[in-house]
Amino acid sequence: MSAAGTRKAGIRDLTDAQLRGRRALVRVDFNVPLDAQRHVTDDTRIRAAIPTIQLLLSRGARVILMSHLGRPKGQPDPTYSLEPVAARLGELIPQKVVFVASTDTPEAVAASRALGPSEVLLLENTRFLAGEETNDPQVARKLAALGDVFVNDAFGSAHRAHASTEGVARVVHPAVAGLLMEQELAYLGGALRNPVRPFIAILGGAKISGKIDVIRQLLPQVDGMLIGGAMACTFYEAMGLGVGTSLVEPDRVELARTLVAEAGARLTLPHDALVAPSLDAAGAARAHAVPRDKIPADEAMYDIGPRTSESYARAIGIAKTIVWNGPMGVFETPPFDAGTRAIAEAMAEATARGATTIVGGGDSAAAVVQAGLASRMSHVSTGGGASLEFLEGKPLPGVAALDDAPAAA
Q: For residue 355, what pLDDT is reported?
């Protein structure tokens, strides 16, 4: 399903004849963190692609993977090589993983054709190609020579019209969604199209400017919207409340005032705040909770307060569909992780009661993983920017370019 509502074709829509012995060129999202020794420190995204890889192999396809990693600025840079990612993938699957240190070269094409049935090929970083991020048609055609079927399983990059996401899908057909992409679209699309009610959205993060479109898109659809993070302070300013030294976007105050008026009772702002003089150790040691209208002039809000955590947890407890995007505070710095952790725990409990809980990628997904609660959510998105743009109702180029699903018989 796309943001526009048209279901896109997936792997399971392909016939055996379209896959057996054919080269499946799969765009994955292996943009994973590496340490100073070039070891993968979080393989979540690699693991997320394995079901698609194994399904293609089980149906007789030869699997060629391509991904970006970091921002190497359109030229080869050893710092961003995918070779250590290939090594980690080789530890996670039983098949041999072959790595080729190029992407759109005759060497890469030859490797794709020589691939054995129990091997997987991973190509070098697509962002080593000068025309990748500009969606150069010539680069897309070179990438197309690597496969007979195109599978996009990189939801995290679907909002970018790059040669390896949108461009190649215009050249290689069939062009279909992988299992992870299908899952992302099903959960996020289902929340927008036909949510089981009560339906609430929880939005956090530092700036209201980054969430304007998603607020406007979701407000008419939700039964309630809970706001957290530093962006709450811009709303406070719009309400005439003092915010001390908290982060505020002065140019968004009037917008916040308008949103509060339009939303009415559907929009809930934090009742209290966890404040401190600063984020450093000395400042954090002096953290304390205050009502939202009592923020000291020389302190800043760094998290929602305990009353808000309890109130938001009660709202989550009666909801049937919950979408969360953005942390409630500076969750990387205790004690300002308490609000975010409280939301994660309440959502985990809601999942156990049968609610659909969706974490919309980015920092909120990182926080859920950090809390050890990712497995207790219905769905944790692998795409930060992509999930946000989907929730904003924007078309995702990497999805729009895929073939439409065949009409039901």
A: 97
DSSP 115-130: --TTEEEEE--GGGST
Tokens 């990628």 locate to 361
Of 362, 383, 384, 398, the catalytic one is 362
- Rounded-to-integer distance, Cα 73 and Cα 133, Å: 9
**Which residue type occupies 334?**
P
Q: What is the pTM of this model?
A: 0.86
Q: Report residue 191: phi and psi, to 5°.
A: -65, -35
Identify the bridge partners of residue 268 per DSSP, sorted by sequence position.
Answer: 226
List the domains of the chain with CATH numbers. Answer: 11-180+395-400 (3.40.50.1260), 187-381 (3.40.50.1260)
Catalytic annotation on 362? Answer: yes
Q: Contact at 8 Å (CB) between 125 and 29?
A: no
Q: Are strands 356-359 and 379-380 parallel, antiparallel or unpaired?
A: parallel
Beta pairing partners, 121 = 64, 98
CA–CA distance, 329 with 66 (Å, rounded to integer): 35
CA 136/CA 335 separation, integer angstroms = 47
Strand partners, 379: 358
To the query of whether residue 244 is one of the catalytic residues in this protein, the response is no
Q: Is 314 a catalytic residue?
A: no
Question: What pLDDT, in 10s, does the model give residues 194-204?
Answer: 899 999 999 99
pLDDT digits (tens, 9 = 90+) for 251-266: 999 999 999 999 989 9
User: Is 21 assigned a catalytic role?
Assistant: no
